[in-house]
Amino acid sequence: MRSTQKRGAQPIAARVLLGGFLGFILAGTLLLALPVSNAAGNWTPMLTAFFTSTSAVCVTGLIVVDTSAYYTTFGKVVILVLIQLGGLGYAVAYSSIIMLLRRRLSQRDQETIKAGMNLPHLGHQREVLKLVLISTLCFQALGALLVMPAFLHHRSGGLGAFDALFQAVSAFNNAGFSTYSDSLTTFSTSYVVGLVLPTLVIIGGIGVFVQADLWERFVTRKRLRLSLHTIVVLRTTLLLVVGGLILVLLFEWNNPAVFGGDGVGERLIKAYGMSVFPRTCGFNMVDYKMVMPMTYWLTILFMFIGASPGGTGGGVKTTTAAMAFLATLNTFRNRTSTYIHGRKIPAKALLNSYALITVWVTVLILAIPAISHFDPGLDITDVVFEAVSALGTVGNSRGVTALLSEPSQLILIALMLIGRIGPITVGSIAFRQAAPDLVHYPVEDVLVG
Q1: Fewer CB atoms near the end CB (10 Å): N or C, the chain?
Q2: Cα separation values, 328 from 209, 214, 334, Å
Q3: DSSP character for 239?
Q4: What does the alpha-carbon distance between residue 117 and residue 111 come to, in Å, rounded to a whole number?
Q5: Nearest-CA neighbor of 32 among 4, 12, 11, 57?
């Protein structure tokens, strides 16, 4: 007989997490709507402020107005703070929820946090929080100092220094917001900017747990070996960066709209940025409307994969893509288990990987036709690019964000929020916890494929 136990309430952690991000977004909306934030001294339309605030808190970078020209210094500072809160919030919210609600969290809540925020484990909250704050501030400060001479060359004094800090914070948090109208196109041949900012994106994207693992393994020597999580993240990230760089050079080498008269060094810098930024940062070093079709689809793939668990970026995550790929490969090889670096991957982890990818694809299948319906004049390739960029919290665009109708902008806002807090977290709010069955049913196979 089936259990009649009532369904459980919505997970506390998921509601607190969603409420926290919404609180930041609404506060940012109100501040950005004020005349003091608007360069023209006018009230900013509420939807414009709402879109910008959501994009900043969700560290995306999609914009419906030119950040550089539309907002005052006060407005840009508000955006900068929202980016920092959104980036830090990924780990700070996790630590705060555990510490504040520790005695009230059910097993369901803990699983929601782990799955929704892509965390390898729950524990050591204070240590994690401390490491997040220290590593964030140190890397951002170092990055700002390194790129400051290049930005001071374009804008002297306080403006140049602010530009350097803004870009460094935006890069580390994988946000993609820029104080320049053309993003980083002005600095596309700068070796310092072209090396430092993508590297900040990678460091912020690999996640605090990987940073902690590397620190304990090579600095404090508390660990004898790196965790499997760290190994998978580093290997997958390296493969994506190096593979992306090579493919971009291959696809765009003879494209004058991308490389023009650039030398080998400048081409390597641009290719490095084009292999890193699409994985959830969104800085532009080139016009993506001018890239070759293969580069377009490569960028879509990178935006889909995104950063790593516990990092500041979005996407389905590097580990998810790696495990799904290896599990699929093993299926072709008729192997029943998946192994990575001499370790067997639990079936639940593989199931979560496929579930996350399925949810991602489903959301896009619903969003893309909806945007096309409200904006029938847009090319479908631009719509796909925009939707994947929003859900992956990337921020890359082919120049159509500002052309979208109000319903389409609201769809992108929903996509950015879902991408930031995680589809699994959203699903845990939408579907209440089911009571466990008291009866175990017999197993029977079903033909697949």
Answers
A1: C
A2: 27, 29, 10
A3: H
A4: 10
A5: 57
- What is the three-class DSSP state of 157? helix
Query: Among all chains, which residue has been given the structure tokens 């790929």?
Result: 325
CA dihedral 414, 420, 424, 427 (to 10 degrees): -30
Dist CA 288 CA 302 (whole Å): 14
- Per-residue pLDDT of 368-427, as tens digits, reads 999 999 999 999 999 999 999 999 999 999 999 999 999 999 999 999 999 988 877 777
Strand partners, 344: 339
Q: What share of the chain is helix, strand, coil (3-state, %, to 5)?
A: 65, 0, 35
**What 3-state class would DSSP assign to 288?**
coil
CB 95 within 8 A of CB 71: no
Three-class secondary structure of residue 128 per DSSP: helix
Give dist(CA 152, CA 160) in Å, integer. 4
Displacement of CA 79 from its chain's centroid (Å) = 17
Cβ atoms 195, 201 nearer than 8 A: no
The model's pTM: 0.89
> In this structure, which amino acid lies at residue 26?
L
Q: How far is CA 365 from the centre of its chain?
A: 20
275 near 245, Cβ under 8 Å?
Answer: yes
CA distance linking residue 25 with residue 423, whole number of Å? 18
235: buried, middle or exposed (CB in 10 Å: 19+, 13-18, 0-12)?
Answer: middle
User: Per the structure block, which two tokens stand in for 38?
Assistant: 């608007």
How many residues are given for the chain?
A: 449
CA distance readout (Å), 136 to 129, 201, 264, 301: 11, 12, 33, 27
Q: How confident is the model at residue 349 (pLDDT cuts 50, 70, 90)?
A: confident
Helix (H) or strand (E) holding 340: strand 339-340
Residues 243-298: tens digit of each pLDDT: 999 999 999 999 999 998 899 999 999 999 999 999 889 899 899 999 999 999 99
Q: Tens digit of pLDDT for each residue in 202-247?
A: 999 998 788 888 988 898 888 888 989 999 999 999 999 999 999 9
